Amino acid sequence: MSTVFESxxxxxxxxxxxxxxxxxxxxxxxxxDDPTSSEPAPLEEFLKWWPxxxxxxxxxxxxxxxxxxxxxxxxxxGMPARTxxxxxxxxxxxxxxxxxxxxxxxxxxxxxxxxxxxxLSDFGFRHFDATRDSRELLKRADAALEEERGCPLEYxxxxxxxxxxxxxxxxxxxxxxxxxxLVDRKxxxxxxLGSAFDVAIHVWAHYRGFAKGLTGDERGNDLVITxxxxxxxxxxxxxxxxxxxxxKEFLPGLKNLPFRICNVDLYRERDxxxxxxxxxxxxxxxxxPTVTNEDADENAS
Length: 301
Known about the structure:
Number of helices: 10
Oligomer: single chain
Radius of gyration: 22 Å
Structural class: alpha+beta
CATH class of the largest domain: Alpha Beta
CATH architecture of the largest domain: Roll
Helix content: 25-40%
């Protein structure tokens, strides 16, 4: 039995106490809308060819609107990926599965229990609604994406998430190295989101002021520590990020706050810093660099 199939069963089992009924739901009531075939296929048949894309399924989480996100490692690349499934329910039975893109949606009956998705609950995102949202918004986003990519991006407007400041446009297919784009609704600047991090962490980093850029030279920030609450956790994290020698050099400054670490590329540490904030290990600010690489080059010359 595939890892994906096992996870689907486990997730559905939490919503159906009768395992016999669950087995009947999965094996008899589920069909797949395969765009390459005119005939729907049972879930068992579908899973015979789809799971080869998956090596390890490491996260199954539900959104507050009834959707579920599957995050896994792609077997060919070893890179994290987010795969889209739409399971439609009728009378609390699965009636259809539709395979989609990077941001997964498994739609459950509204009466069923739903877990929390940070992108929707913490940052106020909702699904684009053609009846209330302007199509002009997507037209301007399309232009920004084409400028960024050099070619148009095909996607479904129903997969777009938005809040007052941002649009999140997921890739409608499995892609190496990216989980979609974040578009600023004010400037219409499009930022490609690396697939190494959850989309919600990218959004958190956007609001926290992390520098945007493709290389370390373009991603410099100052990390300003304003309070330390858990010294052991802070030491472990700083040793992991900067090394033991740097931790010893930082220690006097950390005991005389605020302490500023200048012009560092924090892109790869955004998940660690998000965790530090969430768990309250220390308080910090992310600011533009006070000393840039150009300044350092001038001083050296």
